[in-house]
Specification:
Elements lengths: L3 H8 L2 E5 L4 E6 L4 E8 L2 E11 L5 E12 L4 E5 L5 E6 L3 E8 L4 H6 L1 E7 L6 E6 L1
Length: 132
């Protein structure tokens, strides 16, 4: 049985449509949890874990936790503690459905951060990120 709460959650879902080779920058979302599913196509999700914040508070050291390939029916979960910093790149025309809980509001959107990521040069799985 679909409840009104479920209907509200589904209405709050965000669909991201990407073309081949397009990507969504690395971001840290300010939600408790997001579950995304690949509806069509193939999308790579690059996941990172925050290791350190620079003294300037605009630079960060992240651990690259690897790439997950998503195909139709695949589900990936991100929480405030795991894989929250992530980027997407479409390998073909794709549709991703993201369900954020709690749903985004103006405060959560403002608290999200977007990064430019470059290899750190020190350890193979560490990268340096700067705020965009």
């Amino acid at each position: 049985m679909i409840t009104s709460a479920t209907k509200k959650l589904v209405r709050k879902a965000e669909t991201i449509i990407s073309a081949l080779g397009k990507s969504i920058s690395v971001a840290e979302m300010s939600v408790s949890r997001t579950d995304m599913t690949c509806a069509t196509g193939m999308v790579d999700v690059q996941r990172f874990h925050l290791l350190a914040v620079g003294k300037d508070r605009d630079s960060f050291t992240l651990r690259d936790e690897g790439l997950v390939g998503m195909t139709p029916g695949s589900v990936s979960s991100l929480t405030a503690e795991t894989h929250n910093i992530h980027g997407l790149k479409a390998r073909s025309f794709s549709q991703i459905i993201d369900i954020f809980t709690p749903p985004y509001d103006s405060g959560r959107i403002k608290d999200s951060r977007w990064f430019r990521v470059t290899p750190s040069g020190t350890k193979s799985n560490e990268v340096t990120a700067t705020l965009l």
